[in-house]
Design a protein that fits this description.
about 180 residues, alpha/beta, Rossmann fold, five-stranded parallel beta sheet, 6 helices, about 35% helix, about 20% strand, globular
């Protein structure tokens, strides 16, 4: 099953997946650090983990959050996570990060790690993030950085790779309105 998740290619769903029990400790540790950092802001909060994959990070955040909802487009990844992580504070759902059915301002915290560089419609994703985030909410995001923004990256799973300057400017355009 995990090979199916890892190697899955579809028109809009070419993905890279972290599957904890299959990753070398160093790789898993690097990815978990993002969630360890985010946990500092999730105490007693309602959290969205956008592009959760199999949900290992969303499950980690349930240690401190009141509720965590992890969403991903990949039904195989969500099914795997639902079978692996059983927690009353966790829900894993199939959903598009750029177009959800959640209410306006529903989340206190939105986490989105190594996601934006995969998306075909970044403006729609950022508009949806702003819509879902509470007025005083926190958006915790990461993406690989390159010296210059590249709209034709070598990584076949990426639609764009951002420089720090361009990424910060993009986020400010949406988040500081």
């Amino acid at each position: 099953m995990t090979n199916l998740i890892r190697n899955r290619l579809e028109i809009h769903d070419a993905v890279e997946r972290i599957i904890p029990e299959e990753e070398p400790d160093g790789i898993l540790s690097i990815h978990l650090k993002r969630y360890q950092f985010a946990a500092n802001y999730c105490q007693d909060k309602k959290v969205l983990d956008a592009a959760t994959g199999v949900g290992y990070g969303a499950d980690y955040l349930t240690q401190v959050a009141n509720q965590v909802i992890g969403i991903d487009l990949d039904p195989v990844a969500i099914s795997y996570g639902q079978g692996k992580y059983s927690n009353s504070r966790l829900q894993l759902q199939i959903a598009d990060v750029a177009n959800t059915d959640f209410a306006d301002s529903e989340f206190d915290v939105i986490c989105s790690f190594e996601t934006i560089e995969h998306l075909p419609n970044i403006p729609a994703y950022l508009q949806e993030t702003v819509r879902l985030l509470a007025t005083d909410g926190i958006y915790i995001v990461s993406t690989p950085q390159v010296p210059q923004t590249n709209h034709n990256p070598q990584n076949p799973y990426h639609t764009v790779e951002f420089s720090r300057h361009d990424f910060e400017a993009l986020l400010k355009d949406y988040l500081e309105k």
